[in-house]
Write a structure and sequence with these properties.
Layout (H helix, E strand, L loop, with lengths): L23 H16 L3 E2 L2 E2 L7 H13 L4 H18 L1 H4 L4 E2 H4 L3 E7 L5 E8 L6 H5 L2 H17 L20 E6 L3 E2 L5 H17 L4 E7 L6 H6 L6 H4 L2 E3 L6 H4 L26 E2 L1 H7 L35 E3 L9 H4 L12 E3 L22 H4 L6 H4 L9 H5 L8 E2 L2
Parallel strand pairs: 3-10, 5-6, 6-8, 8-9, 11-12
Antiparallel strand pairs: 1-2, 4-5, 7-13
C-alpha cells in the first residue's frame, strides 16, 4: 500500500533551446523573409539571400547594411528593402550584358584585378573622365548614364565573388569584401559647371548610396589640379573622420603606386606601376551608336511612370527628389536632401529636362563611400563666401549638426565638376 505522504514524482522538463543572440544581425536575419516578400526580390549583388543564419554570403551582406547605418536596425532594414525594390525594378545584373554606346562611354570605365605577394586579390574600378568627348552625349540622358554606371559597378562586384564567402565579418573587424575606386581627372576642366554633369552626378549618388553600401574601401582622386586642394581640405570641416579616411586626392596619377604598395608593380605605368594599361581591363559591352539603336526595342525601354502607382508623397522640393528616370512604380531610397538650385542654373538653356520621379529622397540614410561618385563640384555657382575662396557655403551653414546621414551630402561637393578637356 503506497504511503500517503509520498512526494509525487515530477517529470523532468526538457531544457529550453538556447535563444539566438539578441544582436542587430540576428534580428535583421529574422526579418529578412518579410523584407524579401515585401520587396518582391531576393537577390543582392549576385547572392540569393537566405534566412538561414549559417549562410555566410547573406550574413556579410546584412552586416554591410548594418555598418552603413552605424548598427541601427531600423535604418538597415529600410535601406535593404529599398535596395531590393530598386534591384527588382532595374535588374542590374542584366545590365552587365547590355550593350552601350561606344561614342558615349568608350574609354570611360574599367575594372581590373591585382594580386599581392600573398595571393590576395584587389579589385579596382576606374573612371577616366578625361576620355569624355561630349558632356551632353555622355551625361545628358540621366537614365542611360545610370544604367551604364550600374553595369560597371556590377561588373566590379562580380570580381568580389561574394557567393564564395565562407564566414561572416568579424565584429568591428576589417571588411575584406570591398573594392577600390580611382577617379582620373587628367585633361578635365574644373572651372565651368555643366548642368548635364551635375544632374548625372546627383542621380548616381542618390542611387548608389542606397544600393551599394560598404562596397568601396577607398577612393583615389588622381591628377587633381593643385588649385583644387582647398576643396578636399574643406571636407574636413563637415565629413566624419571614418569617411574622410576613404578619400585620397593626388596631384599626380603616379602617386597611386605609393599609396597601394602591396600591388604597386601590377598597376598601370601611368599610375606608377609596371602593369598593363587600364584600358586592357574589363569593361561593359560597347557598340557603335547605330547598333545600339537597332538593339533597342519598345519592350526594353523603361515604361512611363503611372500616376496612380503609389500614394502621393508629402510635398518636397525638386532637388530633394533627385530621380532615376521613368519608372512604373515609386521606390523610396533613403538619401539626404539635396540643396536648392540657384535661379541662374535653372534658367540655363542646356539644363537637362526633368524626369519622372522614381527615387524619392528620404532623411535618415547613413552612407559614406559613395559620396564622391562622379565628379568634383568646383564649378557650381557659389555663394559669396565660397566665391571669395572660403570653403564655407550657404549649403554647409544650413546643415544640421554633423551626423552620419549627412555624409553623402558632403561628398556631393566633390562630385560635379565639368569633365571638359582643357586645351
Amino acid at each position: 500500500m503506497p504511503e500517503e505522504n509520498a512526494t509525487p514524482v515530477v517529470p523532468e522538463q526538457a531544457e529550453a533551446p538556447a535563444s539566438a543572440p539578441d544582436t542587430p544581425l540576428a534580428k535583421l536575419t529574422a526579418r529578412l523573409a518579410d523584407i524579401i516578400q515585401q520587396s518582391g526580390h531576393s537577390e543582392m549583388w549576385g547572392v540569393e539571400l537566405s534566412s538561414d543564419a549559417s549562410h555566410a554570403p547573406t550574413q556579410v551582406i546584412l552586416q554591410k547594411f548594418l555598418r552603413a547605418n552605424n548598427g541601427d536596425l531600423a535604418g538597415a532594414e529600410k535601406q535593404l528593402a529599398a535596395a531590393l525594390a530598386w534591384r527588382q525594378k532595374w535588374q542590374p545584373t542584366k545590365l552587365v550584358s547590355q550593350a552601350f554606346s561606344k561614342d558615349k562611354f568608350g574609354g570611360l570605365g574599367f575594372v581590373t584585378n591585382h594580386k599581392d605577394d600573398a595571393g590576395n586579390n584587389t579589385v579596382i574600378t576606374w573612371n577616366i573622365y578625361g576620355s569624355v568627348k561630349d558632356n551632353k552625349a555622355t551625361f545628358g540622358d540621366v537614365t542611360e548614364f545610370i544604367k551604364w554606371r550600374t553595369a560597371l559597378m556590377e561588373l566590379g562586384v562580380q570580381q568580389l565573388h561574394l557567393n564564395d564567402i565562407k564566414e561572416p565579418l568579424p565584429e568591428d573587424g576589417t571588411d575584406k569584401h570591398q573594392m577600390l575606386q580611382v577617379h582620373d581627372y587628367r585633361s578635365v576642366s574644373f572651372f565651368r559647371m555643366d548642368p548635364a554633369v551635375k544632374a548625372a552626378s546627383k542621380e548616381t549618388i542618390s542611387v548608389f548610396s542606397t544600393a551599394y553600401p560598404e562596397l568601396l574601401a577607398h577612393k583615389y582622386f588622381v591628377n587633381v589640379p593643385a588649385i583644387m586642394g582647398w576643396m578636399f581640405g574643406a571636407m574636413k570641416l563637415f565629413l566624419a573622420p571614418a569617411t574622410l579616411k576613404k578619400f585620397h586626392p593626388m596631384a599626380s596619377g603616379a602617386s597611386l603606386a605609393t599609396e597601394l604598395k602591396s600591388i604597386a608593380s601590377s598597376l598601370p605605368q601611368e599610375y606608377g606601376g609596371s602593369g598593363a594599361p587600364v584600358q586592357q581591363g574589363l569593361t561593359v559591352t560597347l557598340v557603335d551608336a547605330s547598333e545600339t539603336a537597332k538593339e533597342e526595342t519598345p519592350a526594353q525601354r523603361e515604361p512611363e511612370a503611372a500616376p496612380a502607382a503609389a500614394p502621393a508623397p508629402a510635398p518636397v522640393s525638386d532637388e530633394a527628389n533627385e530621380t532615376v528616370a521613368a519608372a512604373s512604380q515609386t521606390v523610396v531610397l533613403p538619401v539626404r536632401p539635396k540643396e536648392e538650385e540657384t535661379p541662374a542654373e535653372i534658367k540655363k538653356d542646356d539644363a537637362p529636362a526633368a524626369v519622372e520621379p522614381e527615387v524619392k529622397a528620404v532623411e535618415g540614410k547613413a552612407t559614406d563611400e559613395n559620396a564622391a561618385e562622379t565628379l568634383p563640384a568646383e564649378g557650381e555657382s557659389k555663394p559669396k563666401a565660397e566665391a571669395d575662396g572660403s570653403p564655407a557655403s550657404a549649403e554647409i551653414a544650413s546643415k544640421e549638426p554633423e551626423t552620419a546621414p549627412k555624409e553623402t551630402e558632403t561628398a556631393e561637393t566633390v562630385e560635379t565638376a565639368q569633365p571638359e578637356k582643357t586645351a
